[in-house]
Write a structure and sequence with these properties.
Largest interface: A-B, 50 and 49 residues
Strand content of chain B: 25-35%
Largest sheet of chain B: 10 strands, mixed
Shape of chain A: globular
Strand content of chain A: 15-25%
Radius of gyration of chain B: 18 Å
Number of strands of chain B: 19
Distance between the termini of chain B: 15 Å
Oligomer: heterodimer
Number of domains of chain B: 1
Number of strands of chain A: 27
Shape of chain B: globular
Largest sheet of chain A: 7 strands, parallel
Number of domains of chain A: 5
Helix content of chain A: 40-55%
Helix content of chain B: 10-25%
Order of helices and strands of chain B: EEEEEEHHEHHEEEEEEEEEEEE
Structural class of chain A: alpha/beta
Radius of gyration of chain A: 28 Å
Structural class of chain B: alpha/beta
Chain lengths: ~850, ~280
Amino acid sequence: MLTASLGRPVKPGDDGVGRRAHGDILPSRFADWFASRGWSPRRHQLEMVQKAREGKSALLIAPTGGGKTLAGFLPSLIELTERAPSAEAPGLHTLYISPLKALAVDVARNLTTPIAEMNLPITVESRTGDSSVAKKQRQRIRPPDILLTTPEQLALFCAWEGSRLYFRDLKTVIVDEVHALHASKRGDLLALGLARLEQFAPGVRRVGLSATVNDPDMIRRWLGADIDLILGDPGAPPVVDVLLSQGHVPWAGHTAQHAMAEVYDAIRHAQTALVFVNTRWQAEFAFQELWRLNEDNLPIALHHGSLSAEQRRKVEAAMARGELRAVVCTSTLDLGIDWGQVDLVIQLAAPKGSARLVQRIGRANHRLDEPSHAILVPASRFEMLECQAAREAVAENALDGDAERTGALDVLAQHIMGVACAEPFDLIALYTEICSAGPYAGLSWEDFEDVVEFVSTGGYALKSYDQFRRIVKGQDGLWRVRNGHIALRHRLNVGAIVGPETLNIRLLAGRRAGRKIGEAEEGYLEQLEIGDTFIFAGQVWRFHGVTGPDALVTPAPNTDPKMPSWGGSKFALSTFLARRVRAMIADEQSWRRLPDDVCEWLQAQKLRSVIPAMNDLLVETFPRHKRFFLCCYSFEGRLAHTTLAMLLTRRLERAGVGPVGFVASDYALAIWAARPMDELDLDALFQQDMLGDDLESWLEESVMMKRAFKNCALISGLIERRFAGHEKSGRQVTFSSDLIYDVLRRHQPDHLLLRCARADTAQGLLDIGRLGDLLARIRGRIRPSRLEKVSPFAVPLLLTIGRESVPGAHQDWVLEEAEDDLIAEAMR
Amino acid sequence: MSHTAQRKIVILGAPLGEPEDPASGTPGAAGSSDNRSTISEDDGFELALRIGNPALQVQVAGVWAALLPSGAAFLETKRTLICADLHLEKGSAYAQRGQLLPPYDTRETLRRLAEDVRRTDPERIVLLGDTLHDAEANGRIAGADVEALSAIGQGRDLIWVMGNHDPQGPGALPGHAVDELTLGPLSLRHEPLSGPRHGEIAGHLHPCARVVASGRGVRRRCFITDGTRLILPAYGAYAGGLSVRDAAFDGLFARPPLIGAIGSRRVHAVRYSAVIGD
């Protein structure tokens, strides 16, 4: 947890004292500049300068609005100012990396100001995927002093033979928004890139900039060895309210629709508000609703990842100019772009994790010393609990965090291929270098060899590909790429980590694909059935199916759009918050802090069923409408619940109760069957061994596993998405990864990529870890409640039935149904 | 594709029983308690089928063919097993060009073939063209796979019908080459000829169908037949597929054909109208 601030708080205008205190650290030119702006440099900014003078690497953890960016750059600006002029053109001095393309551009603007006002002889340029070819070439020949760029660009540099020379004089590398980057495959690749930079420029200083996190040491380890830690002042605690909406919290839902009028009202009273939601679909919906209520014609904008880059840029610019009263956004704006006048953050539907909430609140009101204001709008009664728990967590400054991860091997494969494309490497030296990258510190030599073998020949037990090696070992004992053509193909596909496949959304014109409206992730559209309506870019459309890379739609104004299920968050309820919610439910005293109708609901549950103790698992059974239900309240998040439900369903099948369907939410899961389940041995049903064979076989066949494999196959370079001359869309991936998956599973089940896919599935998609923890936790603590009718707790869950779709394994049922149609026709 | 003539579907036998061994099934008429059901009017043409597990049985030019979930067709009365488009060594062909796909496709395809042969015990095995992915595949195929193919053809007539990808034939590999094969009223060739062809069994097109039901779609390899001609799916482990709605299938069928969609365990009889384009 954050400690109390060290040293004296500095206040704006505290000129005289400030200057004397830091006179030694800051050169007078800089000190004067701060004074001219009416600022005093913050303690952590001075500490960063000090560390730089000592040549030490550092991680700065500070809340947004704390002058973090400037703290990162100050040392570089000072060094560049004090640098002696030399005959040769100087090389790149500082490399700044941020995960967001827009951020890099935005920071340039912020740097330009002090440089211009102080008249410093420093050049700053940005380089992203959107930069022109001409610009990129120029930057290679004549590097600026400071280059702002993205992780993908660094990966491309690593695959370029000119990099060693290019980075020779590099003094500092700054990684911004580390907290958002480190625990992902992207973070893995970046860490490897940093290790490469170290090779090119030994002793290069590493600087990490991070928002407040639960475990700073985890981030230090990711950043490298021997990183000092600097903590910024925590700032005034945010003021978080929970919007009660006339006191009525609905039973179920994702949208907070009931409260939109009040949300609009809050926007009206604020200067500029950010309205955060968890998914793009929710963003579209909220945007629609607000405009329906927008009598005052306030400028309200929409921002999410599926809109075209141009649209997004417009919104960002208008925001920075202070022209907008509200922006409805998803996490794309989550990262710390400095928005001037935001004074209110509204979170629609529960925030899923307190760290995320803190981050979002940090966006409101960038003056660190004044508290930020946030309003949480829960969408249902259970979410009410979640909001309350989050609110208390924020007040206590208690945060949740990401689990530490081991570096992924498919990412390593991509990196090694890149290294080979740039220059020859020695196997042992490369291994040592890779182990110096945080996530790969524990990499075994065997795994490393496996990856090299994979990059070279595909890593197959059947050794028939020696003649087709992609990288080869030369007479000098060094490995290099076999020819330029292979190198070219690699560079085209670098950074395949980027995104899921996107489909173009096009108007259906006659029977063909017409004008393009935008793009959406394949997964987003998968939820839709042909004929369904949905909202995109603020309008309602009817979905007509997918043809190749295009999703075809027709306008459907004045219809009510369908609520896609699974539009449920891609973020699940965090373990941390789940625990707090369970504690809140179990502690009757705490109910008083909740609004009346939620309190009544809990009372009713106590009366008609059972309130579970914090570590118990409540399992209710009851009949309803010719079906028999089993509901289990575990609060482990939708992902874990979906897995659990599928596994339980298999067991219930064997037990002969005839399970028909299930529904899973963040809080609970419900399975319904043809026969009663109240006589079942629940302890046996929830046995941990279900995570063994049952899970294995289900996993192997699951759609999720195939998707994970496809991802690994793309990232590792086994299959390519792009070919020289034409970019293929995601759907036209050169080779069906499903075909490869099936064959590989049977003939080489321990192949590197299968191991990768399994690890990804276990970690990201199915939350196996949480499931295992849950099963262990509840052993012997199952609390059965056999009821005659539905319980108050079950109501919200049951209301979502019909909206949730089940990701199946074979989906043979589609063929069965089509066949039944045919038979029916014949029988008529 | 528009079809002018109507057709009638006749389903023989009770819909689904226990999984049968296709060899022991009693395709075709003979006795048994056939429940005949028909749908409305037409030009007198009947497409008879028998829904089974795992095979779907259809009549082609009057001869019963069991359509197997592996993608092969078995003519019981002719003791002939037919499979098309094996594309052996497709994996290594890609590897040669820089994409190192797992080299197990030949092994896997031959494994499935051995399995089919074991269950149907045919006298004759017909490889209906494009057995090898390209002309040089012969040089890349592993010794163990050649042996597997020999074992498969042991004591049976192993026939290679010539395709467009492997015009040079089996070479040193087991089996002998022909351009076409005639079995009674049936003509077996690699590429379907244009226009109506009574009794033709062909491959080449790699048919796939995106079947929709309740608004959901799944894409599967499939057989396609109108009772007059039959097109087999690609048998090879890495062979892709072309939608039956694609123009390549135009003009082949005068009547709306039946789709035999390959599921995870059996072949499902599906109407052409239940299939949409990709």
